[in-house]
Design goal:
Helices cover about 60% and strands about 15% of the residues. By secondary structure, the protein is α+β, with helices and mostly antiparallel strands.
Amino acid sequence: MASPRDRSVLGIASLIVYITLSYLLFAARPVTETGLTLSNIVIPIIVLSFNMAIILSWMGFGLFAGMIMFIISLFTALAGVLRSHSYSAAILSWSFILAALLGYRHWKTCNDIEYRTQLNSEKIEEEINILSDGLRKKKAETRNLEERLLRYGMLKNVAESLTTTLTMEDIATLIMEKTSATIKKDGRILLFLVDIQKQELMLSASQGPARIKAKKGDIFDKWVLKHGIPLIVEDVTQDFRFPGKETEAAREYFKSLITAPLLSGDKVIGILRMDSPQGGLYTQDDLRLLDILGGLGSVAIQNALLYSWVQDLAIRDSLTGLFVRRYFLNRLHEEFSRAAAKGNSLSLLMLDIDRFKWYNDRYGHATGDIVLKHITNTITGSLREGDIAARYGGEEIVILLAGADAKNARKKAENIRKKIEKSPVIVRREKHNITVSVGVSSYPEDSALEEDLVKEADERLYKAKSLGRNRVCAS
């Protein structure tokens, strides 16, 4: 198939041939000097050349120009025949029809080829576009996969970091840092933990510039606490799940958020949340990552709680929650050494429940445990920060008052004794007023030795009992 440039050349060639033949046909003499007529030598050549001009015109210019060349060539040739009086040569003009048919056939074939070529070209171009789109999508998917692999690699590091951290404070800080580094979106990060006794959320840690108004969680956190499933909100002002009145306060601080529950079995033990003033900032992929981080965080928190519980078991009495005797003696040694070095005071209170054996014998040991826990709760509610109470043995309880002299220690002992006396315990629908006897010893007033301080408090306790119980003996 000829190119546009080739067609132009062919068309120009057909015009040149036609003009040349027309000149030869009309400018030449009808009869040569030798007596030969024009038709004897030149006309066949001219007719053949006209056919070439017709064919070249079809090839160069197409249908319209080919038909025009055919018509003017036919009339030009007939005019030449009439001028030369070579009427027998007119029969050769029928060859123009054959030339025109050949030209038409060539033009039609070229058009068909061009049409099919164009269709194939369009089809190939369409396939190229489809392949290009597919390639772009594959590249985008590859980038997404690479980003996910990077994120999940970070999650692996998060899991390793969390498994080596056992304190709640360190875990909360680590969750904040890893959440920010993994999701990489602007906004606040909040970690709430559930207060088991009150069954309400309490803010444990936060990261971000905005001030936190709802330290016990807002409507979105309570929704996750209730349903136990992750939550994404693209615009808090348009989410039908949350009434407008309850989201008005939230609009000032954030517009979009993602929240994931921290689960222990079927129970929600906390909530991990991200929010931003920008609407529609977070995606479902971000929510999935936050949910994974929440899952890792919940395992770490449970491990920390378990570790803390095991630690408490080692130093606390399982029934009363007071420190055990061994831990108390270690702390007494530390505080006594500190008081001796700095010249500070230190006092001990040794308490014993009056007639405790009678309660056990009459009502059973389960009732005795109830009485003991009741007394313990009353005592711990009366202590200052830094005071140490321990179960010294059986129903005996010892209290270390760092910085308290003999006068203040006696006053503290009286307050505890009266408070216990005025706090009856219900045993089998009967109200019982429990009393205690207390022995008090102080450093440096009563003894300069650690062992003698404990011995003196114990002796004064039994003195209080021998004097009639329900009293404080400090001398």
